Every structure is written in C-alpha cells, then in structure tokens.
Amino acid sequence: MEQQTYTIREMSERFGLPASTLRYYEEIGLLTDVIHTESKKRIYTQQHIDCMTAILCFKRTGLPIAGIQEFFRLEDDIPGNIDQMVAILEEHEQNIREKIERMESDLEHIQQKGITVRFAMRLRMGMKCRRGIPAAVRRRRSRFLSRLFRRRHTQVSKEQVRKGTNIHFSYLLFLFFLSPFPFIPGIFSAFPA
C-alpha cells in the first residue's frame, strides 16, 4: 500500500503556517527526511505530520526551539536517553502547571475587576436616573409602550403612553394573558365551554 504524501502547500494549510516556517524547521533539523523531487519540490509523509503536531504542541505550551531540538535529538536513541527525555517532559509539565495556576489567578482578578466596573456603571446610571431619566431612555420607553399598545388594539391616550405611569400593572397582566403567544398554544381551549 502506497503511503500518502503531502506538498508543502498542503502542510502549510493543514497547520496554518507559512511555507517559510516549514523550510526553517527542516533547516534546523526538526523536520527530517523530507523528500525533494528533481524539480526541488518537498514531499511530506504522515511521519512529518506527526512530527509537526508534536512541534506545535511544544511551541504552544512554551518550550523554546532549543528545547524541542534537544528532545528530538534524544529521540533518535530512545532506550539510551529515556531518563533525559522523561526529565525534559516532567520539567515542561511542571512549567505548564505553574503557568495555568498563574493564568487562573489572573483570570479571577480580571473577573473581579469586571464585577467592580459593572457595579460602578450601575451606580453611575442610578445617579443619572435620580437627576432625571435621560432623553434616550425616555424615547426608548415611549417607543416600547406605543408598540405594546398598538399590538393589543387598546384605546390608550398618547399622554398615558408617553408617561407610562398611569397604566395599571394588573391591566398589563390582563393584556398579556389575552394576547396569542406561540408558547401558550390554546390556553383557553383547556377550559370547557
């Protein structure tokens, strides 16, 4: 069975990297055994995909290129270098855990700041409302109420709609239960005639 091969363009698209990065990894010895055709085109195999997956995993988690090179150099003779490889991986794992703890602490700090900012914003809005409702809020409320009453086909004066204060809460509830809502299908059909 013939092994599937990939071009540099396919590798580039697969990993979201420019072709120059793939060539650089080959140059510094991270990607080895890349086949070059007569027309100087590079051919990659599944082995290269596995290698690139490992490289990107190490890079994302903060292992420097020199550390990745050292790990791959040791990988050439796994039985003889197993202790060193395990030590590199354990140290890297410890670094990642410390990074995660710092980031969780930072995230908690950011969330606390967000709560404080939202609280301050609400306080400020409350202070504005005490001085008088802003014109934009009054306009939005007026538009909402006029649409609400247009839908209900009720006779409400423009003054009542504008103020929105003379409308009794029980009247609004009455209108709510008389209107046809899709989530209350046949509410009145449950009662026998």
Based on Cα principal axes, name the global outline.
elongated
CA radius of gyration: 34 Å
Provide a count of the helices: 8
DSSP strand tally: 3
Strand order of the largest sheet: 1-3-2
Q: Hey, roughly how much beta strand do the residues contain?
A: under 5%
Largest sheet: 3 strands, antiparallel
| Helix-strand string | EHHEEHHHHHH
- Low-pLDDT stretches are 177-193
Helicity level, as a percent range?
A: 55-70%
Classify the secondary structure makeup into a structural class. mainly alpha
Q: Please, what is the average pLDDT?
A: 75
C-alpha termini separation: 77 Å
Task: Write structural notes for this entry.
With 193 residues, this protein is mainly alpha-helical. 68% of the residues lie in helices and 4% in strands. The chain is built from 8 helices and 3 strands, in the order E-H-H-E-E-H-H-H-H-H-H. It has helices at residues 8-15, 19-27, 46-60, 65-75, 78-131, 135-152, 158-163, 169-178; strands at residues 6-7, 35-36, 42-44. It has a 3-stranded antiparallel β-sheet with strand order 1-3-2. Strand 2 (35-36) and strand 3 (42-44) form a beta hairpin. Helix 4 runs antiparallel to helix 5 (78-131). The radius of gyration is 34 Å and the shape is elongated. 7% of the residues are buried.
